[in-house]
Amino acid sequence: MTAKEILEKLLSHTGLTVNSLATEIGLSRAQALYDIQNEKTKSITPSMADRVIQKFPDINRVWLLTGEGDMLSGHDPRREPTEFPLDKMEKARALAEELGVELIPMFSEPFKGGNDGYPLAEDINEVESVWTMPDVRADMIVPVVGDSMAPTFPQGSRLAVSRVWFRPDEPLSIPFGEAFAIVLHDPDDPDPKAITDYVKRLYKHDDPAKRREYWIARSDNDMYEDFEIPISHVVGLWRVRASVAYFA
Fold first, then answer.
1. CA-to-CA separations, 158 to 14, 113, 121, in angstroms, rounded
2. Which residue blocks in the chain are alpha helix, DSSP H?
3. What are the residues whose beta carbons fall under 8 Å from the beta carbon of 14, sequence distance 6 or more?
4. Any domain includes 133
5. In this structure, is residue 8 part of a structural domain?
6. For a FRET experiment, which of 107, 214, 215, 220 has its CA 20 to 30 Å from that of 100?
7. Average pLDDT in the 66-79 region?
8. Full-model pTM
9. Which long-range contacts does 222-228 make (Cβ < 8 Å, 24+ apart)?
């Protein structure tokens, strides 16, 4: 099935025109959809597929990208994690009440699966959507960029994380070996927004003399080397409770 055929079937299913579909999925211009319809563009991009699924969660992402399988995902929101755009809050609240769970906000800023960190821009870190996750209690959901935690958390995964409150003078109290989202700020940097973040597994330092000053950050992808996390630089720590993989 070609991208044009996928788009035409999507328009038929939703009852929308090209222009109204562009508006619904938040495209500033409908030209990208017209290019698919006119076969100037031969495929639907992963980012466009994400926009469609955020608005129409019953659509199968693999089908959108490849034309393979069924158009509808068969997704059961009572059993599986479900994302709701902010304009569907009433529906999200009703489902959360039915399931007896709290809505979990998803933030726009990703956590880095890599060894260079990711510069957080707090002023644009906004809530993009809300999720219901049966049997999961979490404070927020964040996207992942990079592949250092693959195959456990591949590029594009969404992680449900809960805040871990730890005392810097008791750095050995965290559950080592678990995956964490970590936010760091160098206290010697005068810029309070100069912070970086990671998704890593944390371990005790191999050197007993350093165990109260540093944790060891380790990737699930063995192509990345371990490195030290200065505990005094940690300004935020969240434990990964669950993940939802988005495959590009």
1. 26, 12, 19
2. 3-14, 18-24, 31-37, 46-55, 61-66, 89-99
3. 21, 24, 56
4. yes
5. yes
6. 107
7. 83
8. 0.67
9. 223/148, 224/114, 224/115, 224/148, 225/115, 227/115
